[in-house]
Amino acid sequence: MLKYLARRLLYMIPTLVAITLLTFVISLHTPGDPAMLKLRNSEASGPGGAREFWPAYARERAKLNLDMPVFYFSLSRLALPDTFYRIAIPAHRKMLDNLCWEYGNWPQISKYYQRLKQAWLHPGEERDEMQDAALYHLLVASNARERVQWIKKLDRRRFGPVLEAWAELQSKARPWKNYIPSIHWHGRKNQYHYWLFGDGRENKGLLRGDLGRSFRSHRKVNEILSSAILVTLQISIFALLFAFLLSVPSGLFLAGRAGSFLDRSLSSLLFALYSTPAFWLGTLLIVFLGGGDFLNLFPPFGLGDISQRGFFDALLFRFWHLILPVFCLFYPAYTYLTRQMRNSALEEMQKPYVRALRARGIPLSRIRRKDIFINASLPHITLLGSFIPLIISGSVMIEVVFSLPGMGKTTLDALYARDYPVVFGAVLITSAFTVLGFLLSDILYHLADPRIQVKKEKA
Length: 459
Hints:
Strand content: under 5%
Low-confidence stretches: 41-48, 454-459
Order of helices and strands: HHHEHHHHHEHHHHHHHHHH
Shape: elongated
Mean pLDDT: 81
Largest sheet: 2 strands, antiparallel
CATH class of the largest domain: Mainly Alpha
Distance between the termini: 18 Å
CATH superfamily of the largest domain: MetI-like
């Protein structure tokens, strides 16, 4: 058993690595800029505002390790240098990339960019709005025609070095370099490595449980999600536990009465329940049982404050708040699992070993309790791995309907606010639960029928 468990744990490692890599890649391509979101500003405020904003933006990027290469290596073209990632301003990177496509000579492009940026950041005592606008637009020019228009507006006396660098750039063009691929090795100082292992300062890295800080509240994502996941687990564990425990005897009961009026009636009821949206039923339960227009039996929203209550009083108080949301998560899983158990039990009852046992005079009720129960439960164990993430993700609408501060509602709020560290932290946690769920299924499957694993090893 230990050997089997160790092998399954080893299989999990590449899966988790692939999940972290995929999550990291998605985080790089999400809308918005983390440094911009933290500063709550943008360089679209015009030339004057941009001159003050850019240094602060570069410092914020350095704090977030965004001034580093993305991965251990990068594949680009020969015209671009291996330090292109150090260009802080997105509009500048786009402008320089366009220049590289046009001319391909990075030393001359870099010289032009540095002189242009120096003239822009340090305008001197002689100020001219037209010259300021020309410098600003040259730094963000998106096409050659726009660039030529603003170059003509520069004062040759004041900005001679910029114009000289521009002339040298044009005379030494090497556009053919854009069609030669180039691989750059960056080593451990890259964003992915620091995201995983930390930077040795405030960020401890994902492998040590540090999911970063929220863009919105600047709190640690661990703190935000730890309290949220406790709420979700309270609902999900109870719903999943009751669904699995009750669906097995229910399915066996219906299988023993297959084709009867009771079987047809209860199967139709289960199908109708399974087809009913959980959020819609939750809303009806609030209206009819949660103090809406009818009865006021259960608290409709939140979890209530238990800080001033004793242990048993707090336990009962919290249980009373969770009845409606737990039921809304419980019944879709219960109806599906019951129908699966019924079908599995009916299939087992047609097998030769059941007929052989009945021929020996063993009652069907005993066969159903001992043999059919175990064999028909094996598909249930397989479904356990897939139900854990489904229950957690399915709690989103339930948490919204009942105003519960769980993982679903927290993630949804973070998504609306573009608080991506919280969103990706929730994705990683849900993925980890998925992998652990399948591992638990494999272990239970092996415990329920060790012969299956033996056959696999011999094969």
